[in-house]
TrEMBL record, chain A:
It comes from Mesobaculum littorinae. InterPro entries: AAA+_ATPase, ABC_transporter-like_ATP-bd, ABC_transporter-like_CS, BCAA_Transport_ATP-bd_LivF, P-loop_NTPase. Residues 6-232 form the ABC transporter domain. GO terms for biological process: L-amino acid transport. SMART domains: AAA (SM00382). Belongs to the ABC transporter superfamily. Keywords: Amino-acid transport, ATP-binding, Nucleotide-binding, Transport. The keyword Protein transport does not apply. GO terms for molecular function: ATP binding; ATP hydrolysis activity; branched-chain amino acid transmembrane transporter activity. It comes from the Bacteria. CDD domains: ABC_TM1139_LivF_branched (cd03224). This is ABC transporter ATP-binding protein. The lineage of its organism: Bacteria, Pseudomonadati, Pseudomonadota, Alphaproteobacteria, Rhodobacterales.
UniProtKB/TrEMBL annotation, chain B:
One of its GO terms (molecular function) is branched-chain amino acid transmembrane transporter activity. The chain crosses the membrane at residues 27-50, 81-100, 105-122, 157-179, 200-222, 279-301. PANTHER family: ABC TRANSPORTER ATP-BINDING PROTEIN, HIGH-AFFINITY BRANCHED-CHAIN AMINO ACID TRANSPORT SYSTEM PERMEASE. It comes from Mesobaculum littorinae. InterPro entries: ABC_transp_permease, LivM-like. It is found in: Cell membrane. It comes from the Bacteria. The keyword Transmembrane applies. This is Branched-chain amino acid ABC transporter permease. It holds the Pfam family BPD_transp_2. GO terms for cellular component: plasma membrane. CDD domains: TM_PBP1_LivM_like. The lineage of its organism: Bacteria, Pseudomonadati, Pseudomonadota, Alphaproteobacteria, Rhodobacterales. It is a multi-pass membrane protein. Keywords: Cell membrane, Membrane, Transmembrane, Transmembrane helix.
Length: 240, 320
Protein backbone atom coordinates (compact mmCIF):
# COMPACT_ATOMS: atom_id res chain seq x y z
CA UNK A 1 0.00 0.00 0.00
CA UNK A 2 1.37 3.39 -1.01
CA UNK A 3 1.66 5.95 1.76
CA UNK A 4 -0.41 4.26 4.50
CA UNK A 5 -1.76 6.46 7.30
CA UNK A 6 -1.05 3.77 9.89
CA UNK A 7 1.58 1.09 9.58
CA UNK A 8 2.63 -1.77 11.87
CA UNK A 9 5.76 -3.80 11.14
CA UNK A 10 6.81 -6.91 13.03
CA UNK A 11 4.73 -5.95 16.05
CA UNK A 12 4.87 -8.32 18.98
CA UNK A 13 2.97 -7.07 22.00
CA UNK A 14 0.99 -8.10 25.05
CA UNK A 15 0.48 -7.24 28.69
CA UNK A 16 3.59 -7.16 30.84
CA UNK A 17 5.77 -10.14 29.94
CA UNK A 18 2.89 -11.98 28.26
CA UNK A 19 2.95 -11.99 24.47
CA UNK A 20 -0.48 -11.79 22.85
CA UNK A 21 0.28 -10.44 19.36
CA UNK A 22 2.94 -12.11 17.26
CA UNK A 23 4.78 -10.47 14.37
CA UNK A 24 1.92 -8.33 13.08
CA UNK A 25 2.35 -6.49 9.77
CA UNK A 26 -0.52 -4.18 8.90
CA UNK A 27 -1.13 -1.09 6.77
CA UNK A 28 -4.17 1.17 6.87
CA UNK A 29 -4.84 3.60 4.04
CA UNK A 30 -6.32 7.06 4.33
CA UNK A 31 -10.09 6.79 4.42
CA UNK A 32 -9.89 3.00 4.45
CA UNK A 33 -12.38 0.86 6.37
CA UNK A 34 -10.70 -2.17 7.88
CA UNK A 35 -12.55 -4.98 9.62
CA UNK A 36 -10.68 -7.07 12.17
CA UNK A 37 -12.43 -10.32 12.92
CA UNK A 38 -11.58 -13.38 14.92
CA UNK A 39 -12.67 -15.46 17.87
CA UNK A 40 -12.47 -14.35 21.49
CA UNK A 41 -8.85 -14.26 22.56
CA UNK A 42 -7.56 -13.93 18.99
CA UNK A 43 -5.82 -10.65 19.89
CA UNK A 44 -8.21 -8.15 18.28
CA UNK A 45 -8.59 -5.90 21.33
CA UNK A 46 -4.86 -6.17 22.04
CA UNK A 47 -4.17 -5.04 18.48
CA UNK A 48 -6.15 -1.83 19.08
CA UNK A 49 -4.63 -1.40 22.55
CA UNK A 50 -1.17 -1.72 21.02
CA UNK A 51 -1.89 0.85 18.32
CA UNK A 52 -3.19 3.19 21.05
CA UNK A 53 -0.25 2.54 23.40
CA UNK A 54 -2.23 0.78 26.10
CA UNK A 55 -0.31 -2.51 26.02
CA UNK A 56 3.33 -3.54 26.21
CA UNK A 57 5.16 -3.43 22.90
CA UNK A 58 7.87 -6.08 22.86
CA UNK A 59 9.11 -5.66 19.29
CA UNK A 60 8.28 -3.92 16.05
CA UNK A 61 7.46 -0.50 14.67
CA UNK A 62 4.24 1.51 14.64
CA UNK A 63 4.03 4.55 12.38
CA UNK A 64 1.31 7.12 11.97
CA UNK A 65 1.66 9.10 8.76
CA UNK A 66 5.29 7.99 8.58
CA UNK A 67 6.12 9.07 12.12
CA UNK A 68 7.17 6.47 14.67
CA UNK A 69 4.73 6.47 17.58
CA UNK A 70 5.74 3.29 19.37
CA UNK A 71 7.34 5.21 22.23
CA UNK A 72 4.60 7.81 22.57
CA UNK A 73 2.12 7.87 25.44
CA UNK A 74 -1.56 7.24 24.56
CA UNK A 75 -2.47 10.92 24.93
CA UNK A 76 0.23 11.92 22.44
CA UNK A 77 -1.03 9.33 19.94
CA UNK A 78 -4.51 10.75 20.48
CA UNK A 79 -3.23 14.25 19.81
CA UNK A 80 -1.71 12.98 16.54
CA UNK A 81 -5.08 11.69 15.38
CA UNK A 82 -5.70 8.23 16.84
CA UNK A 83 -8.98 7.74 18.67
CA UNK A 84 -10.11 4.59 20.46
CA UNK A 85 -13.67 3.65 21.34
CA UNK A 86 -13.03 1.04 24.03
CA UNK A 87 -14.93 -2.21 24.23
CA UNK A 88 -16.02 -1.36 27.78
CA UNK A 89 -17.34 2.04 26.56
CA UNK A 90 -15.84 3.68 29.65
CA UNK A 91 -18.56 6.25 30.16
CA UNK A 92 -18.16 8.41 33.25
CA UNK A 93 -21.36 7.63 35.13
CA UNK A 94 -21.35 10.71 37.36
CA UNK A 95 -20.99 13.10 34.41
CA UNK A 96 -23.92 14.01 32.20
CA UNK A 97 -23.90 13.16 28.50
CA UNK A 98 -22.84 16.70 27.68
CA UNK A 99 -20.13 16.70 30.36
CA UNK A 100 -18.79 13.37 29.07
CA UNK A 101 -18.43 14.96 25.65
CA UNK A 102 -16.91 18.21 26.91
CA UNK A 103 -14.39 16.29 29.03
CA UNK A 104 -12.88 14.92 25.82
CA UNK A 105 -13.30 18.07 23.72
CA UNK A 106 -10.27 19.14 21.75
CA UNK A 107 -9.57 21.88 19.23
CA UNK A 108 -12.55 23.06 17.24
CA UNK A 109 -14.72 20.00 17.95
CA UNK A 110 -18.28 21.01 18.79
CA UNK A 111 -21.13 19.35 20.61
CA UNK A 112 -23.37 19.99 17.63
CA UNK A 113 -21.26 17.69 15.45
CA UNK A 114 -21.67 14.91 18.01
CA UNK A 115 -25.40 15.55 18.27
CA UNK A 116 -25.74 15.60 14.48
CA UNK A 117 -24.33 12.08 14.37
CA UNK A 118 -26.42 10.89 17.32
CA UNK A 119 -29.53 13.06 17.80
CA UNK A 120 -30.55 10.76 20.66
CA UNK A 121 -27.65 12.12 22.71
CA UNK A 122 -28.95 15.66 22.38
CA UNK A 123 -32.28 14.55 23.82
CA UNK A 124 -30.47 13.01 26.75
CA UNK A 125 -27.71 15.57 27.16
CA UNK A 126 -28.61 16.39 30.77
CA UNK A 127 -28.87 12.74 31.81
CA UNK A 128 -26.08 11.11 33.76
CA UNK A 129 -23.97 8.49 32.02
CA UNK A 130 -25.30 5.90 34.44
CA UNK A 131 -28.87 6.53 33.23
CA UNK A 132 -28.16 5.60 29.61
CA UNK A 133 -29.04 2.34 27.91
CA UNK A 134 -26.29 0.19 26.44
CA UNK A 135 -26.89 1.56 22.96
CA UNK A 136 -26.87 5.15 24.18
CA UNK A 137 -23.67 4.51 26.09
CA UNK A 138 -22.10 3.19 22.90
CA UNK A 139 -23.25 6.27 21.00
CA UNK A 140 -21.78 8.43 23.71
CA UNK A 141 -18.49 6.51 23.66
CA UNK A 142 -18.20 7.01 19.90
CA UNK A 143 -19.25 10.66 20.03
CA UNK A 144 -16.80 11.31 22.86
CA UNK A 145 -13.95 9.87 20.82
CA UNK A 146 -14.97 12.10 17.90
CA UNK A 147 -14.62 15.11 20.22
CA UNK A 148 -10.85 14.47 20.17
CA UNK A 149 -10.81 14.99 16.37
CA UNK A 150 -9.28 11.65 15.33
CA UNK A 151 -8.57 10.80 11.71
CA UNK A 152 -8.05 7.14 12.55
CA UNK A 153 -10.89 5.70 14.64
CA UNK A 154 -10.42 2.38 16.39
CA UNK A 155 -13.77 0.78 17.26
CA UNK A 156 -13.53 -2.16 19.63
CA UNK A 157 -16.57 -4.45 19.41
CA UNK A 158 -19.08 -1.59 19.37
CA UNK A 159 -22.05 -3.87 18.66
CA UNK A 160 -21.44 -6.22 21.58
CA UNK A 161 -24.56 -6.94 23.59
CA UNK A 162 -26.80 -4.55 21.65
CA UNK A 163 -30.21 -5.13 20.10
CA UNK A 164 -30.30 -5.59 16.29
CA UNK A 165 -32.08 -2.27 15.74
CA UNK A 166 -29.38 -0.43 17.71
CA UNK A 167 -26.67 -2.33 15.83
CA UNK A 168 -28.19 -1.18 12.53
CA UNK A 169 -28.28 2.41 13.78
CA UNK A 170 -24.64 2.25 14.87
CA UNK A 171 -23.55 0.68 11.59
CA UNK A 172 -25.21 3.58 9.80
CA UNK A 173 -23.26 5.98 12.02
CA UNK A 174 -20.01 4.22 11.04
CA UNK A 175 -20.96 4.75 7.41
CA UNK A 176 -21.51 8.45 8.17
CA UNK A 177 -18.14 8.64 9.90
CA UNK A 178 -16.28 7.15 6.97
CA UNK A 179 -18.27 8.54 4.06
CA UNK A 180 -16.17 11.64 3.37
CA UNK A 181 -13.08 9.48 2.91
CA UNK A 182 -10.85 11.48 5.25
CA UNK A 183 -11.23 9.26 8.30
CA UNK A 184 -9.90 5.73 8.44
CA UNK A 185 -11.92 3.30 10.53
CA UNK A 186 -10.69 0.08 12.12
CA UNK A 187 -13.65 -1.99 13.22
CA UNK A 188 -13.00 -4.91 15.54
CA UNK A 189 -16.14 -6.99 15.58
CA UNK A 190 -17.42 -10.49 16.22
CA UNK A 191 -20.49 -9.82 14.09
CA UNK A 192 -18.52 -10.90 11.03
CA UNK A 193 -21.25 -10.29 8.48
CA UNK A 194 -21.90 -6.73 9.62
CA UNK A 195 -18.19 -5.93 9.78
CA UNK A 196 -17.48 -7.36 6.34
CA UNK A 197 -20.43 -5.50 4.82
CA UNK A 198 -19.02 -2.24 6.20
CA UNK A 199 -15.34 -2.69 5.43
CA UNK A 200 -13.23 -2.31 2.29
CA UNK A 201 -10.66 -4.75 3.57
CA UNK A 202 -10.57 -7.32 6.36
CA UNK A 203 -8.03 -9.17 8.38
CA UNK A 204 -8.71 -12.41 10.15
CA UNK A 205 -6.87 -13.00 13.41
CA UNK A 206 -6.17 -16.21 15.25
CA UNK A 207 -3.87 -16.82 18.22
CA UNK A 208 -2.40 -13.32 18.06
CA UNK A 209 -1.47 -13.48 14.36
CA UNK A 210 -3.04 -12.34 11.12
CA UNK A 211 -4.03 -15.48 9.25
CA UNK A 212 -5.77 -13.82 6.32
CA UNK A 213 -5.84 -10.36 4.81
CA UNK A 214 -7.74 -9.20 1.75
CA UNK A 215 -10.82 -7.46 0.40
CA UNK A 216 -13.77 -7.76 2.74
CA UNK A 217 -16.04 -9.03 -0.02
CA UNK A 218 -13.57 -11.78 -0.82
CA UNK A 219 -13.42 -12.94 2.79
CA UNK A 220 -17.21 -12.89 2.98
CA UNK A 221 -17.14 -15.50 0.23
CA UNK A 222 -14.74 -17.76 2.16
CA UNK A 223 -17.06 -19.62 4.56
CA UNK A 224 -14.34 -22.18 5.19
CA UNK A 225 -12.01 -19.54 6.62
CA UNK A 226 -14.76 -17.85 8.58
CA UNK A 227 -15.90 -21.13 10.02
CA UNK A 228 -12.40 -22.17 11.00
CA UNK A 229 -11.27 -18.88 12.56
CA UNK A 230 -14.45 -17.12 13.62
CA UNK A 231 -16.84 -20.00 14.11
CA UNK A 232 -19.57 -18.66 11.84
CA UNK A 233 -21.74 -20.94 9.71
CA UNK A 234 -20.79 -22.55 6.46
CA UNK A 235 -23.06 -20.38 4.38
CA UNK A 236 -21.17 -17.71 2.40
CA UNK A 237 -22.79 -14.85 4.29
CA UNK A 238 -23.10 -16.71 7.56
CA UNK A 239 -22.86 -15.07 10.90
CA UNK A 240 -22.30 -16.13 14.47
CA UNK B 1 -29.53 29.78 37.49
CA UNK B 2 -30.44 27.18 40.13
CA UNK B 3 -26.72 26.50 40.61
CA UNK B 4 -26.19 30.12 41.60
CA UNK B 5 -28.69 30.19 44.48
CA UNK B 6 -26.45 28.57 47.08
CA UNK B 7 -23.27 30.52 46.25
CA UNK B 8 -25.24 33.78 46.21
CA UNK B 9 -26.85 32.89 49.54
CA UNK B 10 -23.37 32.27 50.98
CA UNK B 11 -22.21 35.63 49.65
CA UNK B 12 -25.23 37.40 51.12
CA UNK B 13 -24.58 35.68 54.46
CA UNK B 14 -20.97 36.86 54.35
CA UNK B 15 -22.08 40.43 53.68
CA UNK B 16 -24.71 40.23 56.44
CA UNK B 17 -22.15 38.79 58.86
CA UNK B 18 -20.14 42.00 58.55
CA UNK B 19 -23.03 43.99 59.97
CA UNK B 20 -24.35 41.40 62.42
CA UNK B 21 -20.97 40.55 64.00
CA UNK B 22 -19.00 43.82 63.76
CA UNK B 23 -16.77 42.83 66.70
CA UNK B 24 -15.83 39.44 65.27
CA UNK B 25 -14.31 40.62 62.02
CA UNK B 26 -10.95 39.03 62.75
CA UNK B 27 -12.60 35.65 63.18
CA UNK B 28 -14.81 36.14 60.13
CA UNK B 29 -11.76 37.08 58.07
CA UNK B 30 -10.02 33.90 59.22
CA UNK B 31 -13.01 31.92 57.98
CA UNK B 32 -12.87 33.63 54.58
CA UNK B 33 -9.13 32.99 54.23
CA UNK B 34 -9.64 29.38 55.22
CA UNK B 35 -12.40 29.08 52.62
CA UNK B 36 -9.90 30.09 49.93
CA UNK B 37 -7.49 27.46 51.24
CA UNK B 38 -10.15 24.74 51.34
CA UNK B 39 -11.25 25.67 47.82
CA UNK B 40 -7.72 24.91 46.67
CA UNK B 41 -7.96 21.46 48.26
CA UNK B 42 -11.35 20.92 46.66
CA UNK B 43 -9.84 21.40 43.22
CA UNK B 44 -6.97 19.04 43.99
CA UNK B 45 -8.77 16.40 46.03
CA UNK B 46 -12.45 16.85 45.25
CA UNK B 47 -12.18 17.32 41.49
CA UNK B 48 -8.83 15.86 40.41
CA UNK B 49 -8.90 13.05 42.97
CA UNK B 50 -5.38 13.69 44.23
CA UNK B 51 -5.28 12.62 47.89
CA UNK B 52 -3.26 15.26 49.70
CA UNK B 53 -2.47 16.03 53.29
CA UNK B 54 0.25 18.52 52.47
CA UNK B 55 -1.54 21.47 50.89
CA UNK B 56 -0.08 23.62 53.68
CA UNK B 57 3.20 23.49 51.74
CA UNK B 58 1.72 25.81 49.14
CA UNK B 59 -0.20 27.87 51.68
CA UNK B 60 2.93 28.47 53.72
CA UNK B 61 5.04 29.24 50.67
CA UNK B 62 2.50 31.83 49.58
CA UNK B 63 2.44 33.34 53.08
CA UNK B 64 6.24 33.65 53.36
CA UNK B 65 6.62 34.86 49.77
CA UNK B 66 3.98 37.58 50.18
CA UNK B 67 5.36 38.56 53.58
CA UNK B 68 8.94 38.83 52.35
CA UNK B 69 7.79 40.65 49.22
CA UNK B 70 5.99 43.31 51.26
CA UNK B 71 8.95 43.74 53.62
CA UNK B 72 11.72 43.89 51.01
CA UNK B 73 10.11 44.92 47.72
CA UNK B 74 6.67 46.43 47.65
CA UNK B 75 3.75 46.67 50.03
CA UNK B 76 1.01 46.58 47.41
CA UNK B 77 -1.46 43.89 48.53
CA UNK B 78 -2.51 42.76 45.05
CA UNK B 79 1.09 42.41 43.95
CA UNK B 80 1.67 40.47 47.17
CA UNK B 81 -1.20 38.15 46.27
CA UNK B 82 0.32 37.56 42.84
CA UNK B 83 3.66 36.73 44.45
CA UNK B 84 1.94 34.37 46.88
CA UNK B 85 0.12 32.67 44.01
CA UNK B 86 3.36 32.30 42.06
CA UNK B 87 5.15 30.84 45.07
CA UNK B 88 2.36 28.35 45.71
CA UNK B 89 2.22 27.39 42.03
CA UNK B 90 6.02 27.02 41.84
CA UNK B 91 6.18 24.72 44.88
CA UNK B 92 3.24 22.70 43.54
CA UNK B 93 4.90 22.40 40.11
CA UNK B 94 8.26 21.35 41.50
CA UNK B 95 6.88 18.86 44.00
CA UNK B 96 4.06 17.75 41.69
CA UNK B 97 6.48 16.46 39.05
CA UNK B 98 7.60 13.87 41.59
CA UNK B 99 4.52 13.49 43.78
CA UNK B 100 2.12 12.84 40.87
CA UNK B 101 4.12 9.79 39.83
CA UNK B 102 2.99 8.08 43.04
CA UNK B 103 -0.44 6.76 43.93
CA UNK B 104 -2.49 6.17 47.08
CA UNK B 105 -0.75 6.14 50.43
CA UNK B 106 2.66 6.86 48.89
CA UNK B 107 1.28 10.02 47.31
CA UNK B 108 -0.24 11.15 50.61
CA UNK B 109 3.04 10.56 52.42
CA UNK B 110 4.94 12.52 49.79
CA UNK B 111 2.61 15.52 50.11
CA UNK B 112 3.12 15.47 53.88
CA UNK B 113 6.88 15.18 53.37
CA UNK B 114 7.00 18.25 51.10
CA UNK B 115 5.26 20.36 53.77
CA UNK B 116 7.55 18.97 56.48
CA UNK B 117 10.67 19.79 54.43
CA UNK B 118 9.50 23.36 53.85
CA UNK B 119 8.67 23.70 57.55
CA UNK B 120 12.22 22.73 58.45
CA UNK B 121 13.73 24.95 55.74
CA UNK B 122 11.75 27.93 57.07
CA UNK B 123 12.90 27.07 60.59
CA UNK B 124 16.56 26.88 59.56
CA UNK B 125 16.48 30.05 57.45
CA UNK B 126 16.02 32.14 60.57
CA UNK B 127 17.75 35.16 59.08
CA UNK B 128 15.22 35.33 56.29
CA UNK B 129 12.03 33.96 57.84
CA UNK B 130 12.46 34.73 61.52
CA UNK B 131 12.49 31.00 62.27
CA UNK B 132 10.36 29.96 65.23
CA UNK B 133 9.77 33.62 66.12
CA UNK B 134 7.92 34.13 62.88
CA UNK B 135 8.23 36.67 60.08
CA UNK B 136 7.46 40.11 61.44
CA UNK B 137 7.46 43.64 60.08
CA UNK B 138 5.02 43.01 57.26
CA UNK B 139 3.57 46.33 56.14
CA UNK B 140 0.82 46.38 53.57
CA UNK B 141 -0.18 49.43 51.52
CA UNK B 142 -3.84 50.44 51.10
CA UNK B 143 -5.84 48.23 48.77
CA UNK B 144 -5.90 49.89 45.31
CA UNK B 145 -4.21 52.84 47.03
CA UNK B 146 -7.54 53.73 48.63
CA UNK B 147 -8.52 51.42 51.46
CA UNK B 148 -6.09 51.32 54.35
CA UNK B 149 -6.00 48.24 56.57
CA UNK B 150 -7.58 49.29 59.87
CA UNK B 151 -7.21 47.98 63.40
CA UNK B 152 -10.80 46.69 63.57
CA UNK B 153 -10.38 44.69 60.39
CA UNK B 154 -13.05 46.17 58.15
CA UNK B 155 -10.79 46.58 55.14
CA UNK B 156 -9.21 43.18 55.80
CA UNK B 157 -12.62 41.51 55.78
CA UNK B 158 -13.84 43.09 52.55
CA UNK B 159 -10.48 42.54 50.91
CA UNK B 160 -10.43 38.85 51.87
CA UNK B 161 -14.06 38.44 50.82
CA UNK B 162 -13.42 40.03 47.42
CA UNK B 163 -10.45 37.75 46.84
CA UNK B 164 -12.47 34.71 47.95
CA UNK B 165 -15.28 35.59 45.53
CA UNK B 166 -12.79 36.07 42.69
CA UNK B 167 -11.16 32.71 43.47
CA UNK B 168 -14.55 31.01 43.68
CA UNK B 169 -15.63 32.40 40.30
CA UNK B 170 -12.31 31.44 38.71
CA UNK B 171 -12.52 27.89 40.04
CA UNK B 172 -16.19 27.63 39.01
CA UNK B 173 -15.14 28.49 35.45
CA UNK B 174 -12.27 26.00 35.56
CA UNK B 175 -14.31 23.06 36.88
CA UNK B 176 -16.95 23.58 34.17
CA UNK B 177 -14.37 23.79 31.38
CA UNK B 178 -13.28 20.75 29.34
CA UNK B 179 -10.19 20.62 31.55
CA UNK B 180 -12.26 20.64 34.75
CA UNK B 181 -14.60 17.95 33.46
CA UNK B 182 -11.63 15.84 32.42
CA UNK B 183 -10.39 16.15 36.02
CA UNK B 184 -13.68 14.68 37.20
CA UNK B 185 -13.21 11.92 34.66
CA UNK B 186 -9.72 11.28 36.03
CA UNK B 187 -11.10 11.26 39.58
CA UNK B 188 -13.66 8.67 38.52
CA UNK B 189 -11.26 6.50 36.56
CA UNK B 190 -7.73 7.44 35.48
CA UNK B 191 -7.62 4.31 33.32
CA UNK B 192 -10.71 5.40 31.37
CA UNK B 193 -9.28 8.83 30.72
CA UNK B 194 -6.05 7.24 29.51
CA UNK B 195 -8.03 4.97 27.19
CA UNK B 196 -9.69 7.94 25.49
CA UNK B 197 -6.34 9.63 25.04
CA UNK B 198 -6.06 12.09 27.93
CA UNK B 199 -2.81 12.67 29.80
CA UNK B 200 -3.71 11.87 33.39
CA UNK B 201 -0.27 12.83 34.72
CA UNK B 202 -0.08 16.28 33.13
CA UNK B 203 -3.67 17.15 33.87
CA UNK B 204 -3.21 16.21 37.51
CA UNK B 205 -0.04 18.30 37.67
CA UNK B 206 -1.91 21.24 36.13
CA UNK B 207 -4.69 20.87 38.70
CA UNK B 208 -2.10 20.61 41.47
CA UNK B 209 -0.38 23.78 40.26
CA UNK B 210 -3.64 25.73 40.03
CA UNK B 211 -4.57 24.43 43.49
CA UNK B 212 -1.12 25.46 44.70
CA UNK B 213 -1.59 28.97 43.34
CA UNK B 214 -4.93 29.28 45.13
CA UNK B 215 -3.43 27.95 48.36
CA UNK B 216 -0.61 30.47 47.90
CA UNK B 217 -3.20 33.24 47.59
CA UNK B 218 -4.80 32.07 50.85
CA UNK B 219 -1.40 32.13 52.55
CA UNK B 220 -0.64 35.57 51.14
CA UNK B 221 -3.99 36.86 52.41
CA UNK B 222 -3.24 35.51 55.87
CA UNK B 223 0.21 37.11 55.88
CA UNK B 224 -1.09 40.49 54.73
CA UNK B 225 -4.01 40.64 57.12
CA UNK B 226 -2.36 39.25 60.26
CA UNK B 227 0.99 40.84 59.32
CA UNK B 228 2.74 37.83 60.75
CA UNK B 229 3.87 34.50 59.31
CA UNK B 230 4.72 31.71 61.72
CA UNK B 231 6.05 28.21 61.07
CA UNK B 232 2.53 26.91 61.70
CA UNK B 233 1.65 27.80 58.11
CA UNK B 234 3.36 24.57 57.11
CA UNK B 235 1.77 22.47 59.87
CA UNK B 236 0.30 19.07 59.10
CA UNK B 237 -2.68 19.99 61.30
CA UNK B 238 -3.56 22.86 58.98
CA UNK B 239 -3.73 20.57 55.93
CA UNK B 240 -5.61 17.87 57.84
CA UNK B 241 -8.16 20.28 59.30
CA UNK B 242 -8.77 21.77 55.86
CA UNK B 243 -9.42 18.29 54.44
CA UNK B 244 -11.90 17.63 57.26
CA UNK B 245 -13.65 20.93 56.48
CA UNK B 246 -13.94 19.88 52.86
CA UNK B 247 -15.31 16.45 53.75
CA UNK B 248 -17.84 18.09 56.09
CA UNK B 249 -19.10 20.36 53.35
CA UNK B 250 -18.83 17.87 50.50
CA UNK B 251 -15.95 17.19 48.13
CA UNK B 252 -16.16 18.04 44.46
CA UNK B 253 -18.56 20.92 45.07
CA UNK B 254 -17.12 24.41 45.52
CA UNK B 255 -20.02 25.53 47.68
CA UNK B 256 -19.42 22.45 49.83
CA UNK B 257 -15.97 23.82 50.64
CA UNK B 258 -17.53 27.14 51.69
CA UNK B 259 -20.19 25.52 53.88
CA UNK B 260 -17.87 22.97 55.47
CA UNK B 261 -15.24 25.56 56.36
CA UNK B 262 -17.76 27.96 57.82
CA UNK B 263 -19.44 25.28 59.92
CA UNK B 264 -16.21 23.71 61.14
CA UNK B 265 -14.65 27.01 62.17
CA UNK B 266 -17.84 28.30 63.79
CA UNK B 267 -18.38 25.12 65.79
CA UNK B 268 -14.71 25.07 66.74
CA UNK B 269 -14.90 28.73 67.80
CA UNK B 270 -17.98 28.27 69.95
CA UNK B 271 -17.01 24.89 71.38
CA UNK B 272 -13.47 26.01 72.23
CA UNK B 273 -14.84 29.12 73.96
CA UNK B 274 -17.29 27.08 76.04
CA UNK B 275 -15.06 24.14 76.87
CA UNK B 276 -11.37 24.75 76.13
CA UNK B 277 -10.45 21.17 77.11
CA UNK B 278 -13.06 19.01 75.39
CA UNK B 279 -14.05 20.99 72.33
CA UNK B 280 -12.50 18.43 70.02
CA UNK B 281 -15.22 16.03 71.13
CA UNK B 282 -17.81 18.26 69.48
CA UNK B 283 -15.82 18.42 66.26
CA UNK B 284 -15.34 14.65 66.29
CA UNK B 285 -19.06 14.06 66.82
CA UNK B 286 -19.88 16.45 63.99
CA UNK B 287 -17.54 14.70 61.58
CA UNK B 288 -18.87 11.27 62.56
CA UNK B 289 -22.48 12.41 62.09
CA UNK B 290 -21.78 13.80 58.65
CA UNK B 291 -19.76 10.79 57.51
CA UNK B 292 -22.46 8.35 58.67
CA UNK B 293 -25.61 10.22 57.71
CA UNK B 294 -24.45 12.50 54.88
CA UNK B 295 -21.46 10.84 53.22
CA UNK B 296 -21.67 13.35 50.36
CA UNK B 297 -21.31 16.19 52.89
CA UNK B 298 -23.58 18.94 54.15
CA UNK B 299 -24.07 20.14 50.59
CA UNK B 300 -26.26 17.04 50.12
CA UNK B 301 -28.48 17.89 53.11
CA UNK B 302 -31.32 19.55 51.13
CA UNK B 303 -31.51 16.59 48.75
CA UNK B 304 -31.42 14.11 51.65
CA UNK B 305 -34.23 15.98 53.44
CA UNK B 306 -36.29 16.16 50.24
CA UNK B 307 -35.76 12.44 49.77
CA UNK B 308 -36.94 11.78 53.34
CA UNK B 309 -40.09 13.87 52.86
CA UNK B 310 -40.90 12.29 49.50
CA UNK B 311 -40.23 8.83 50.90
CA UNK B 312 -42.42 9.48 53.94
CA UNK B 313 -45.16 10.92 51.72
CA UNK B 314 -45.03 7.83 49.56
CA UNK B 315 -45.28 5.49 52.54
CA UNK B 316 -48.19 7.48 54.01
CA UNK B 317 -49.96 7.29 50.65
CA UNK B 318 -49.39 3.53 50.59
CA UNK B 319 -51.02 3.17 54.00
CA UNK B 320 -54.15 5.12 53.06
Amino acid sequence: MADPVLSLRGVTAGYGPTHVLRDIDLDLGRGERLAVIGRNGAGKTTLLATIMGLSTLHAGKIELRGRGIARLAPFRRNALGLGLVPQTRDIFPSLSVEENLIAAQRGDATLEEAYALFPRLKERRRNGGVQLSGGEQQMLAIARTLMTRPDVILLDEPLEGLAPVICAMLMQSFEDLAKDGTRSVVLVEQHARAALAFADRAILMSNGAIVHSGPAAELADRPDLLHRHVGVGQTPKGDA
Amino acid sequence: MRNLILPLACLLAAVAAFFVFPYDLAFLTRIVIMIVFVLSIDLVLGYAGIPTLGQAAMYGSGAYAAGLFSIHVWGDPLAGLAVGALAGAAIAALSGLVVMRARGLTLIMLTIAVAAILHELANRARGLTGGADGLRGIRVDPVLGLFEFDFIGRTGYWYALAVAVAVFVLLAVIVRSPFGLSLRGIHESPARMTAIGASVYWRQITAYVIGGAVAGIAGALAAQITQLVSLEVFAFALSAEAVIMLILGGTGRLTGAVIGTTLFMTVEHIAAANDPFNWLFVIGALVLAVVFFLPAGLIALPRALTGLIVDKGGRDADRT
